[in-house]
Each structure stands twice: as C-alpha cells, then as structure tokens.
Amino acid sequence: MNRKLSGVVLVLAAGVAGLAMVASAAGTSSRGTKTIRPHGMVVALALDGNLVAFGNGTAVLVWNLRTGKTTNLHMGEDAHLDGLAIAGSSVASYWNATSNFESDDYLLTSSLLRPKGRMVESEARTDQAQCGAAGSGYTPACAGTWLGGVVGSGNRILVNRWTTDTTGAITQGGLYALNGSKLKPVATGPQTVEAVAADSARVAVLQWRWHPPGTTIHVFSSNGKRLSSVTPKGYPLQVAISGGNLVVLERSGNLALYNAGTGLLRRTFNLHAKELPKNERPYGNPRWLQALAVHGTIAVYSKPLRYTNGGNPRESAIHAINLSTGTDRVIGRSPGQIPLAEIDKVGLVYSAQADGYAHNNLVFVPLAQLAAAVS
After folding, report:
1. Would you say residue 166 lies in a domain?
2. pTM of the prediction?
3. Domain range for residue 296?
4. Is residue 2 a part of any domain in this protein?
C-alpha cells in the first residue's frame, strides 16, 4: 500500500478541526511563565524564538508565546508523528505507518502564514515479511528507502534520507536541507544518518544502526563538513547541541559534556537519578531519564521524583544545570512524566503529562529565569 500524493489526507476530520486549547488558570505569572493545556498527549515538540510547534499524534499546532494564539497547521497523517522541526514560519513533520508487511514514511510541510499541509516526500518499504515485526528483532531487516532525522537548524530545516539492504546496513545516505518542496544535499554518506539535534550552525547525528550498538555521534557544520566524532558510554538516551557544547544524556545517570568542535570530553555530571529494579524499568532506560536540551551554558533535563507501584513516574521534575559551574536547580514539577523539552534564546518549553487530559500541559519558562536560578 504505497499511498500517492493525491491519496494522502492532509486535513483530518472533525476531531482535529475541533482540537481545543485551554489556557491554564496560572496563565502568565509575574515572572513570565506561561502554560497551555493541549487536548491529547504531546508527542513531538520544536521551538524557534517565540514560536512553539507541537503535535499530539493527529495534528500539528503552533503556539505563539508573544500573542498566546495557537494555530492549527492542518498537517496530519493517519500515521505516527515521529519528528517535528520549525524554522521561522515554516514547519516540517515526519510521520511513519508500519504494518507486518510494509513501513511508510511521510514528510509534510506547512507555513504558519498559510496553514495548509502539503506532502514533500514519501517512501515505502514493502514485500518484507518481517518489515514491521523487525522492530522487536534484528533480522531480517526492513530493506528500502527511509526518511527521518527532521531537525531545525537556524533558518533551515534538515532531513535525512537513506537506503538499507536486507541486513539493515545503509547502502546510501544523506543529510538534506528542505528548500520549499525540494531537498538540497548538505552531506552524504552513512555517517550523516540520523540527525538528532541542531543549532544555528551545527547538526548532531547519532549514526544509525539496525544492529545495536549505534553509539557514535558525529557533528557536522551547516555546510556539511564533519567537525568531530564522539563515542559516549553506552547508547545515548538523548543528545543536544548548542555552540561548542555537545551534551549527552547517558543510561548510567550521567550528563556528559563534550567539545562539539573537537569531540573531547570536558566534564561529566552525576544527575543522582535512582535506578529502578529490572522488572520495573523501561527497556534501555533504568532511571527514566527523558528530556534533554541545551542553550549556551545552560542545559535542562527531566527525571522522576516518585514512582507508582509499577515503576512509572508518579511525579517528575525539570532541572536546569549550569555547565560551567555544575549548579543544578529544579525549575518545575509535574504529575507523571516530563518527556520533551526545547530551549533557545527566548526560554524553555517542556511538556508534562499524566493520566488523562487534566495534566497534559506545555510550560514556558523565560531564559532569564533559568539563568538566574543557576547563576
């Protein structure tokens, strides 16, 4: 089932059209903290200045921090939203639909000025008996052409495209800049896949492997030159980059700070995260460490404070840490989890989610407030 452009539904039906945004009672505090309450769980988040793009799995919206207005971009697919980037008024989203016999990728864009989704690229991997099932096993892999690695880098949106054989090895790969409805090559080779973080001048790539471990991180400049390579301890949970700072959230419960230009380890911070018993921890993440973002010398991360009997977070906190001094402060708390965070020159945006819609929030904290907390 390789759906053509004409057959793709870009605007979802009434459920999405009626998607409501409710301002929290807290609204805006005297210090500038703002909160909105989306309907549904936020599964993707991106930030560019005063514009916050987020998706709840069926729709993509933009929250204007300056005006408080939220705009539906009418950009959706009957698939899983798995990547989101914003650069100025342009937003790109990556969707994936997988069955036992096929896996489909879709790259869509929309403008905040004219909110209407359009398809840029689509790929399908078919006729593989284990195509969908291979997510829980390693061979045979799903062969074909892939899309992914959607990140915002300054005024550009970057995207990966690559091809695999039946062993899962990348035979062709590249990093591309999204230019309207075209993909312009930035860098080529397997080492360019898959982009996980970017700033205005650099992009961090966690080298894609079908077979673990895929632990090598490459840093590329905006013109496609490889600047450095890093091999952290174990498979990274999260990677973030800002200027010369490359930060890696490790399964061990540490935050590793690298020089993005040379790849040298500068410092390791112990986040004092509790390790759960093996029968209660999520696969590959024994401490439930989740969100990570960095801007300049301020990094933010989330970790649970309390757990349910089954090992799920009952309450979580978002922390800010000064990478120069090691000062670590709690910036916010929420019932349940804090799975996503983004930070730039304006401030921090993070998602907080618990059971039910009542505690699904997006929270903004000004950068000045973060800087004051960890100064």
Report:
1. yes
2. 0.88
3. 22-37+236-375
4. no
